[in-house]
């Protein structure tokens, strides 16, 4: 098992920033309680307030995969087309 990092960026559709923020914030506490979650922090871009950024660390790819199967993440995925203009998730392996 090797640690993985995730940077997930979601850009709200114009006028949907507050809704997207609420949906994303609702995922933070349940995710932090998940087995294998080492870090799960939500940020907002200072220059582009429609852009929200998760910085995550997981014990393993398996823990990250399990995260994607859970109800709160599936609920976000179901709502994301109506709230997000763009989304991007990058997964990286830790080198040092």
Secondary structure elements and their pairing?
Layout lengths: L3 E9 L4 H16 L4 E8 L6 E8 L2 H9 L1 H13 E10 L3
Antiparallel strand pairs: 1-3, 1-4, 2-3
Helix pairs in contact: 1-3
Structural write-up:
- With 96 residues, the protein is of the alpha+beta class.
- The protein has one domain (4-93): Alpha-Beta Plaits (2-Layer Sandwich), CATH 3.30.70.
- The chain is 40% helix and 36% strand.
- The chain is built from three helices and four strands; from the N terminus they run E-H-E-E-H-H-E.
- The protein has helices at residues 17-32, 61-69, 71-83, and strands spanning 4-12, 37-44, 51-58, 84-93.
- The chain has a four-stranded antiparallel sheet.
- Helix 1 (17-32) packs antiparallel against helix 3 (71-83).
- It is globular, with a radius of gyration of 13 Å.
- The two termini are 15 Å apart.
- The model has no long low-confidence stretch (mean pLDDT 96).
CATH architectural designation? 2-Layer Sandwich
- Tell me the structural class: alpha+beta
Find the count of extended strands (DSSP E, 2+ residues).
4
Question: Helical amount among residues, as a percent range?
Answer: 25-40%
Main sheet: strand order: 2-3-1-4
Question: What is the approximate shape?
Answer: globular
CATH fold-level name:
Alpha-Beta Plaits
CATH class: Alpha Beta
| Helix count from the secondary structure assignment | 3
Brief digest:
With about 100 residues, this protein is α+β, with helices and mostly antiparallel strands. The protein has one domain (about 5-95): Alpha-Beta Plaits (2-Layer Sandwich), CATH 3.30.70.
């Amino acid at each position: 098992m090797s640690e993985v990092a995730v940077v997930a960026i979601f850009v709200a559709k114009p006028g949907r920033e507050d809704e997207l923020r609420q949906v994303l914030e609702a995922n933070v506490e349940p995710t932090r309680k998940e087995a294998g979650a080492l870090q799960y922090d939500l940020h907002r871009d200072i220059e582009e307030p429609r852009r929200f950024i998760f910085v995550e660390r997981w014990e393993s790819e398996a823990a990250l995969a399990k995260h994607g199967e859970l109800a709160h993440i599936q609920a976000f995925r179901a709502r994301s087309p109506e709230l997000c203009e763009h989304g991007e998730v990058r997964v990286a392996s830790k080198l040092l």
